[in-house]
Amino acid sequence: MPELPDLEVFSANLNEAFAGRKLSTVEVPNDKKLNVTPEELREVLNGQLLKSVTRSGKELHFNFEKDLLALHLMLRGQLHFFEEIHAIKYPVIALYFEGDLGLVMSDPQKIATPTLNPGLAAAPDALDKKVTPEFLKEHLKGKKAAIKGILLDQHQIRGIGNAYADEILWKARISPFSIAGKIPEGKVKDLHHAIQEVLTDAVEEIRKAHPGSITGEFRDFLKVHTQHNPTSPTGAEILIHKSGARKTYYTEEQQLFN
After folding, report:
1. Domain range summary for the chain, segments of one domain joined by +
2. Which terminus, N or C, of the chain has the lesser number of Cβ atoms within 10 Å?
3. CA 74 to CA 32: how far, in whole Å?
4. Which CATH class is domain 133-250?
5. What is the CA 53 to chain-centroid distance, rounded?
6. What values do phi and psi take at 162, rounded to 5?
């Protein structure tokens, strides 16, 4: 699943391609997850000017003059540019803009989700200015869940997925299995710094290596959540803990608080 840094790059590239264009029409070959009917979606969006494309958590927001269309790629969704016509497998939604330029979101699992005018999210984005050391301190206070689970919970902090949770916790030198409410204030500050640095650095890495990307997951530069190296940059063995389908990558450099 693409995470915050991937989507930040995608949104900038989509904004460059489509902002300022009018939507000619929209097709929804798979309306399983759409919160309105395809007819209602066309009635609302057709003819509207797209003002910008932005990212919020793990969603891409297409900000039209009067309405908002959110796209969530879920696990295996992908985005594709097309001109005039397209023959893309597993289409979920296709946006046709003036000038014969369009965008398709596809998903073989058919769970990628388009949403017209979603409600405001209760949880802040991981890079929101609201996410301060003080916010994290208060948010984690008394929580008995593992810190990695807190970072992954989109109802608490939005945008971070499995790979970047591992990178953030390694950067902060906090074990992913630490009880959130037991992490001391000084380490909470380290966690805040790691969230900011890991995510913003990753955005720059992806922009440099894949400047025009609008789909995919780019992980080659990750330091511990990786198949390429057996040790961290500081020489510690990378350990892997598997729980269901999820793998957690960590090292003994990370302190356990319990």
Report:
1. 4-116, 133-250
2. C
3. 14
4. mainly alpha
5. 14
6. -60, -45
Averaged pLDDT score across all residues of the chain: 96
On whether the CB atoms of residues 194 and 187 are closer than 8 A, the answer is: no
Beta-carbon contacts of residue 85 (< 8 Å; ≥ 6 apart): none
Q: Would the pTM count as exceeding 0.90?
A: yes
Compute the distance between CA of residue 216 and CA of residue 42 in angstroms, rounded to an integer: 28
User: Comparing C-alpha atoms, which of 73, 68, 69 is closest to residue 58?
Assistant: 73
Q: Is residue 213 scored above 90 in pLDDT?
A: yes
With both helix axes pointing from N to C terminus, report the angle between 133-140 and 185-209 in degrees, rounded to the nearest 10: 120
Architecture in CATH of 4-116 = Alpha-Beta Barrel (3.20)
- Whole-angstrom distance, CA of residue 79 vs CA of residue 106: 6
Per-residue pLDDT tens digits for 131-175: 999 999 999 999 999 999 999 999 999 999 999 999 999 999 999
Q: Are 237 and 252 in contact (CB under 8 A)?
A: yes
Same fold, 4-116 and 133-250: no
State the Cα–Cα distance between residues 226 and 207, nearest whole angstrom. Answer: 19
Q: Which amino acid makes up residue 169? A: L
Give kind and range of the element (H or E) at residue 60. strand 59-64
